[in-house]
Amino acid sequence: MSRRAVATINTAALTHNFSVVRQCAPKARVMAMVKSNAYGHGLQEVVETLKDADAFGLAHLDEAVQLRDAGCEAELTLMSGFYDVSELKAASAHNLQVVVHEPTQLKLLENNPLPVKVWMKVDTGMHRLGFAHDEVARIYQSLKALPHVQLQGVMTHLACADDVNDAHTKEQLSVYANCMQQLPDIPVKSVANSAGILAWPESHADWVRPGIMLYGCSPMMGLTGVEHKLKPAMTLSARIIAISDCDSGDAIGYGATYTCDAPTRVAIVSVGYGDGYPRHAATGTPVSIRGTLCPLLGRVSMDMIAVDLSNMEEAAVGDKVVLWGEGCPAEMVAEHANTIAYELFCNMTQRVRVEYA
Ligand SMILES: *Cc1c(COP(=O)(O)O)cnc(C)c1O
């Protein structure tokens, strides 16, 4: 049996998590965010699984075209729109919705009378994408005046919704509300990412845009998915390929950064940064063996990690080791590697075999 790392995608967990979104925001339509290969979970498979979503959000044109070529007829939205005429043409030809967030895009729309569905994006304080709040009324009118443009709504994005105590979110919501009041009619509105859905009901509006919660992780600081009744959609596992008994004073792995302070049973596990397991995962990062959490020891290699078996002495060569997912929250692993679960999922490499269950 191959000892390669395997990512098992639990499609029932995906649909369960989608139902949590519906429960949290029962009145809103749902744009499921599937950019970056559905956060590493497999674009086509996730879109097929989440067929009850009202639309899907993508970062790049080629992801959307890939879905169209595979026969997907769902509403697809490009979150940063188009960058030139050829992309605008492709968006129009493939019936994609585009987010327009800066003036050159507006020019391209004015100069190319192609039928296209447009979301307008407003910067309410994140200072990433979007028109400035004092330009909103003017741009909105310009878009409305274009007969070939079907204006879908006005969206914004929250910068700090993962922290329930951060005043920034209230400020952004109030800037957004003021912008909307300046418009001649009431547009369709969209604000909430997963954190907005879970922690800021006042941000739900007409469309919510869940990403990470669909995959079973909490976007909130210090919480994990189970605390929102979410289920991990991805479980990354590998196998124990060797076990050795180290003495007190023995150093483990590259750089000899960890030294045993007592006799220690050590398992070598067939996963490493070549699979996307984070090289910066520190000693103490949890893995799960036979349902028990055991700590990583020393540096992550390309193909292997070392794990302390003190909590699970009876583990044997060939045992399955969960790196994140069921029994080992990705949020916890991410914290030990000084990153976020989003990045763990997106960084998984081609070497990992992906299975759907
Ligand atoms: C990625 C993204 C989301 C989803 O964010 P999560 O934190 O994963 O829920 C929502 N809106 C926009 C514009 C995004 O780019």
Q: Can you list the ligands bound to this structure?
A: pyridoxal-5'-phosphate
Assign the CATH topology of the largest domain: TIM Barrel
- What would CATH call the architecture of the largest domain? Alpha-Beta Barrel
Give, in spatial order, the strands making up the sheet with the most strands. 8-7-6-5-4-3-2-9
User: Would you state the CATH class of the largest domain?
Assistant: Alpha Beta
Mean pLDDT: 97
Could you estimate the helical fraction of the residues in percent? 25-40%
N-to-C SSE series? EHEHHEHEHEHEHEHEHEEEEEEEEEHHE
Sheet of most strands: 8 strands, parallel
What name goes with the CATH superfamily of the largest domain? Alanine racemase
Number of domains: 2
Structural class computed from helices and strand pairing: alpha/beta
Query: What is the rounded distance between the termini?
Result: 19 Å
